[in-house]
Amino acid sequence: MPTSPAPTTTRGAGSGGRRPILLDVAFLRLWTGATASGLATWALPFVLGLAVLDRTLGATDLGLLLAARTIGFLAAVPVAGVLADRHSRRKVVLWAGLASGAAAPVLAAGLGRSVPLMAAAAAVAGAGQGACRPAYQALTAEVVDAGRRQQANAAMTLAVRVTTLVGPSLAALLAVFLDTAALLVGIGLLWLVAAFVPGRGARPGVTGGAGGAGGAKDAPGTSFLADFGEGVREARRHPWFIAGLGALTAVIATGYSATGVALPLVSRDEYGTEVVLAGAMTAYTAGALAGALLIARWRPRSPGRAALAGLAAYGFAPLSLVLPVHPAVVMAAYAVAGVGIELFNVPWFTAAQREVAPDRLARVSSLDFLLSYGLAPLGLALIAPAIEAFGAAPVLVACAFTCFAAPAAAALVPSSRGFSHRPAADPAEARATGATR
Q1: CA 63 – CA 50 distance, rounded (Å)
Q2: d(CA 66, CA 119)
Q3: Rounded to an integer, what distance in angstroms lies between the CA atom of residue 330 and that of residue 323?
Q4: Is residue 292 within 8 Å of 342, Cβ to Cβ?
């Protein structure tokens, strides 16, 4: 099988290889933008929920707005993947941030006046969020040299986990002083930070997009479908990626659905308190933070199989809900799931940046987000009727089994051992890529 060209090192990579990643100005700017977009992303549903509490928005309307945001996200992800490979990844981030930033005051203007206007703005906001994802993934590969990408991806995922905790809490604090409309405008300002703060990526030796900052430009006249199909073909050239994406999609569609639907029900019906729900979600985020810190430095001998084992650990979350156990057991299970998900995420993103052809990286990343996030709503929609039809315990056991079995099946693919179809790296390459024997 032919190999994909590995991304070359970036400007200043040689001299900065041993510096802490957050002392690299180019990456710090990118990280700041990603953190701002994360805060805005996680704060929006919470702020809209506050609008329900103050009765400027109905519960049904909230569901409509969140659905519109999800539709916008899923529609934009594949388009952004193509655009980020055709043109400058930096410009895709810019326009995506501007779109979400412009949507926020429109949401504020529609409060209590026009739900259709708010739904349209929510779809635009979701599109901006979706467009950022593959562009940020590809831009990270441009800004950071190969030897520090695992550390960079860990820093990115740390930002995501911190904003998951801080975003709603900060919004709740500000809600004491500001009304919902002002909070929505503040979310728009965060998106402007995400749009303007990141710097331009630069990857010597790869021609293409505006200013030379994007992937290689496709031949004139190629259609969107042809370009996206090229990204799908690139993904299929990496059996480890197809197997891992299948496992990830299965875990999100089942394990995450159990968390979203079954955990609140169990917390209410079995324990009679929301403390179990809040404690489990806090433990999950804390575990994810610990996992990101661990994987920033740890280089397992078989990184792919270690990552898939981490992904399988999510199965402990639904399994802990099957029997009436002490709440501490549920929280511990969710903490383990949190550690495991980051032991998967960081090597997964790093391997894609290393193995996928640089001029197709955004499209392959968009396929990742499209499938893993795209099937999540289906799982959420089906799990409640399944619980009503078969009972909670059988459904949770099935979810846990899927979470354990899907990564185990992916690990049987030979190239999944190291998330690479290339032979084991020689010592010099191992030092450059962070791999170990």
Answers
A1: 13
A2: 8
A3: 10
A4: yes
